Structures are given as C-alpha cells and as structure tokens.
Amino acid sequence: MSIRRLDSFEQGRTFGVNAGRVRAQIAIPADGRFDPEKLADACPGVEVLVLSARACDGFREGSGRWYLDNNHMFAFCRGGHARYWAYGRVTPLAVADWLGLAIRKPAAVRTVEHIQTREPDWESMFDDWRNTLDWLVRVAWVERIPAGQKKTTRLDAWRCDPSCARPPQAAGLKAVAETLMDILTGHEAIRRPHPLTRNGKPVIGRWGNPVMRFDVSRQAPGPRLHGTYDRDGVFVLLDVSLHDDLLD
Fold first, then answer.
1. Do residues 12 and 57 touch, judged by C-beta distance below 8 A?
2. Is pTM beyond 0.85 here?
3. N or C terminus: fewer CB in 10 A for the chain?
4. Tally: H helices and E strands in the chain
5. Per-residue pLDDT of the chain (248 residues; tens, 9 = 90+)
6. Bridge-partner residues for 224, per DSSP?
C-alpha cells in the first residue's frame, strides 16, 4: 500500500508540475470524502497522495487544475494523462480500471472487451485551423470545468487577429486551447500573465490595451501566448512564440 501525505504549498506545486510523468498517481484532499486506503488497495503499485489544504493550493498552481477539492479527486496515468471524478460517481475499482491495472474479477462475471482508442488528430479536425482551435477551447472547458460550476464559469468571447494567419508554430493547438480556456474563464493567473515589453516599455496593442504574455508551457524556456483586448473587451489572440518579438 503506497500512501503519501503532502503538507506544504511547495510539495503540492512540485507534484502538480510533475504529476504522472514517472508513475501512475492519485491525488485526493486530506479533508475530502475519499478513502485513501481503499484506493491504495484497489490500485496496487499506484501512489496515492493525500494533500493538505495548502498542498492543494500548490497543486492547483503547478498543474493548472484548480478544481481539486473535497468532492473531487484526480488520477494520473504514467505519461501525465489525467482524469478527475466527483465523489459518489466513481469506485476505487473504476479508477483502477481507468489506470489500466489488472483487476481480478469473479470467474462467473462476463466482461466486455475494451476497445483500444487513439488520440484524435486534432490538427486536421477542420479545414481551417481557427475552427479547430475554437472547438478545442470548448472541449477543454467541457472536460476541465465540473458540471456544478459550468453555470457560473462561462467562456468569454475571443477571436484571432487577422495578422495571425497561420497555425501557431511554437506549440500545438491543444496546448494553446488549454491556455485560452484558462484566460477566458478568469483563471489566467496560473499562466503567469505579464506585459510584452520592448526597450523596457510595455507594448500597446492597436486598441490601446497592453499586449500580454501567458505561459503555454510551465517549462522554461517555453512558448508564450501573446494577446490583447479590443475596445469591446474581447480577447484577441496575436501569436504564440518562443521569443519576445511579436507580429508587426
């Protein structure tokens, strides 16, 4: 049985940055409704991490997944793919099944064959990459916002600037969509927003608002999403770049 407690903000943040990269892991809040021993028993070889309130705050900053709370838990496959569940809607065996663990079942029980699925080819979903990006932003909102928060966590309007004529080269569309979703739902702080500067001065966009930079990747040096707001308060995507220079 592998159960480990994380008590500090830094421990939670470090875990959030690296969750699932080396081994399968499960994250639950210390004050939550999930039983760590039952999860550990059902998922042999999987590390169950029990996070204090401060560690949960650090996890949200490090992972960008802000809805780890008393009623929700996360599981991470090796490689980083994650899924969350609400209390009462999942069993420890269902978590083990999603993690791909061998589960012993009574011989009399007939099981349904699992169908292997592949990650979709996001880049070719539509003829126009802008339509693909718009669709992926909505998918990110559906996947990452819990059902009970969807009425209060809306997606703000956004659009691509005409100068953004080709797909982002510094990052894939799915990563860009995840970043946009954070910005459009008011969770941009986890993307470390800061003004783009030239010669020590903030760059001002055509509508009089600063051009802002947002982290697409938490690894340095990583791609940065550049955007600003127009006169109507609509977020405008300008570019995704690895450097400080931006579109003319």
1. yes
2. no
3. C
4. 6, 12
5. 589 999 999 999 999 888 888 889 999 999 888 999 999 999 998 999 999 999 999 998 988 887 788 888 999 988 768 888 888 888 899 899 889 887 655 544 555 565 555 666 666 678 888 999 999 999 999 999 898 898 899 999 999 999 888 888 778 888 999 999 999 999 999 899 999 999 989 999 999 999 999 999 866 678 899 999 999 999 999 999 885 444 43
6. 215, 241
> In 3-state terms, what secondary structure has residue 86?
strand
Q: Are strands 158-160 and 235-241 parallel, antiparallel or unpaired?
A: parallel
The pair phi, psi for residue 76, each rounded to 5°, is -125, 120
Helices 129-144 and 173-184, axial angle in degrees (round to 10): 60
> Omega before 120 cis (within 30°)?
no
Are 25 and 12 a contacting pair, CB within 8 Å?
Answer: no
